[in-house]
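Notes from the 1:1 (GR / supervisor)

We went over the backlog. Supervisor wanted to see one worked example end to end before approving the batch request, so GR pasted a single chain during the call. The sequence is below; no edits were made to it. Supervisor asked that the structure be written out right there so they could see what the output format looks like.
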Amino acid sequence: MDDTETKLNLGCGPNSAAGWLNYDWGVLPLLSKMPWLRKTAITLRLLPAYYEAPWPKIQLVDIRKRLPLRDGSMEFIYCSHVLEHFDRWEAVRVLKECHRCLRDGGIMRIVVPDIVKMFALYQEAARQPASAGGEPRPARDLCRLWWGFSTDEDPGGFFGKLSRWFMRHHRWHYDRRELELLAKEAGFGRMVVCDFRQGSVSDLETLDYEAHKPHSIYVEVSK
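Structure output shown during the call:
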């Protein structure tokens, strides 16, 4: 690591900003380093077409393990739509590592699906009358948000079933209180709930992803 790098995007996926150190792990991050293979996977419909977008420069790091960073070396850590893919005990382990790597006064921003918002979306959709496009299906839409992809659809043949190998379904969900308990268990103090693209962490106009806004909770915790 360059000693000047003090901003970490944890589980970055294809979204990051200039000047950030990017860690991710899994099939998709590996494919990001092999554009020709990623293009083939899209052609075979193993991946959606939006994965054609270029990924930032990333380091393949399994964030469930000890991070290759010095104690107190990070000013900011950004972690969006990552923790819900882990069992809760794994999420605690990840946050403890983040606490170790943050400098005193450093800030971590956490973005996850919000149970309250997901159910509010369901309730709002359930109140809507049928339209020309057909009967609303709020329960189906909620399930897709909850699990992270369309588990209701038959994957079909060989390539469809193979495409499921690329999916990381959600394993745990949070509301404000559960995030507070998680952060406290990892050693963090007060948690601040923020608005979309508002907070103390830099580059939020780029990092906070528009599509996540309706069903996400945004919080910042400090060391």
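Supervisor's comment: Helices lie at 27-32, 35-43, 88-101, 115-126, 138-147, 158-163, 176-185, 204-207.
Batch request approved.
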